[in-house]
Write a structure and sequence with these properties.
The chain has 317 residues and is an all-alpha fold. The chain is built from 10 helices and no strands. Helix 6 packs antiparallel against helix 9, helix 6 runs parallel beside helix 10 and helix 9 packs antiparallel against helix 10. The longest helix has 59 residues.
Length: 317
């Protein structure tokens, strides 16, 4: 016995429950150019330049070529600088960070120095003012060592001058010249002729004069080397002596007796040394003048007198 299914039946459905019929598919919409409504002026984008136009772009003119040496450059165009703010000059030298004011006694000490030694103050004003500033404020420690270095230098120069004087005296140049001159004097009597024969020969006189001339030249060179040093150190000592005297007058009497005694001793020492240094150039000048005259005499006897004596003796029978 076979079984056959029967179709299902749900009855009549209402119209709202019936699904709408499916519409036929529409054609696919192809996108085209967008069209916008007109709103104000139309903005048109510039067209892109072609390759040929890019190659023909105009560039600014090249700068002028550098002018060679010897070729006059073109005159620059006039520029108006009336509105330009002037630039302040920059100082090239170093400036002190702090400037110390002068001591109140500096003006009084300066006037005292000018009054004590006006000529020396005019010649060495800058150096004297520098010494015055070093002495102020006026203290006992400064006075105790004032002028020590220049005193040492002056003592060494005085000893050198004394050594030169002793060496010049040891040359016995005047005695040696006199002996040569006596050997060439004309003999008027028998005794004079005997003395002349016992004196030095012409060759011995020439050798002696050449040796003496060389020694005198060396002495002159040493004296002329020492003279500038003596004069310079003498001025140094004189200015320091003047500065100490001027500050002592400006400051008045020291506060204690020991300070006063030290000041008096120091002033006396500097004055004595300064007076001594004034005689050293005169002593060197005396040695220089004497050596120069004797050197000239050696030249005359060596080049004229001995030649004449040799000619006279050669003509005698």
């Amino acid at each position: 016995m076979s079984y056959e299914p029967k179709p299902l039946s749900f009855g009549d459905l209402p119209a709202s429950a019936v699904p709408p019929a499916r519409k036929a598919p529409e054609a696919v919409r192809v996108p085209g150019a967008l069209v916008f409504p007109e709103s104000g002026p139309t903005c048109v984008s510039p067209a892109a330049p072609s390759r040929a136009e890019v190659r023909q772009l105009a560039f600014p003119p090249a700068p002028p070529a550098p002018v060679k040496s010897g070729t006059p450059a073109a005159a620059p165009s006039a520029v108006d600088f009336t509105h330009v703010r002037p630039v302040k000059p920059v100082a090239t030298g170093p400036k002190p960070a702090f400037s110390e004011p002068d001591h109140p006694l500096l003006a009084t000490a300066r006037a005292a120095a000018e009054r004590i030694a006006p000529q020396l103050f005019v010649q060495e004003e800058e150096r004297t003012l520098r010494h015055l500033r070093r002495l102020l404020p006026f203290t006992r420690e400064t006075v105790e060592t004032w002028g020590s270095y220049v005193l040492d230098d002056c003592r060494a120069l005085s000893q050198s001058c004394a050594g030169l004087t002793a060496e010049f005296n040891a040359l016995r140049s005047a005695e040696r010249l006199e002996r040569v001159l006596h050997a060439n004097e004309p003999a008027s009597g028998i005794l004079a002729k005997v003395r002349r024969r016992l004196a030095m020969s012409t060759s011995e006189q020439e050798v002696e004069l050449r040796r003496l001339r060389t020694e005198l030249e060396g002495m002159l060179a040493r004296v002329r080397t020492l003279m500038p040093q003596v004069r310079a150190d003498g001025v140094r000592l004189a200015t320091q002596t003047l500065a100490l005297s001027a500050v002592a007058q400006a400051a008045g009497r020291p506060p204690d007796s020991t300070f006063e005694l030290l000041l008096e001793q120091r002033q006396g020492l500097l004055r004595a040394a300064s007076t001594q240094m004034q005689h050293v150039p005169a002593q060197l000048k005396l040695i220089e003048d004497t050596a120069a005259l004797q050197h000239a005499q050696c030249e005359r006897v060596l080049n004229v007198t001995l030649s004449a004596v040799s000619l006279v003796r050669a003509n005698r029978p």
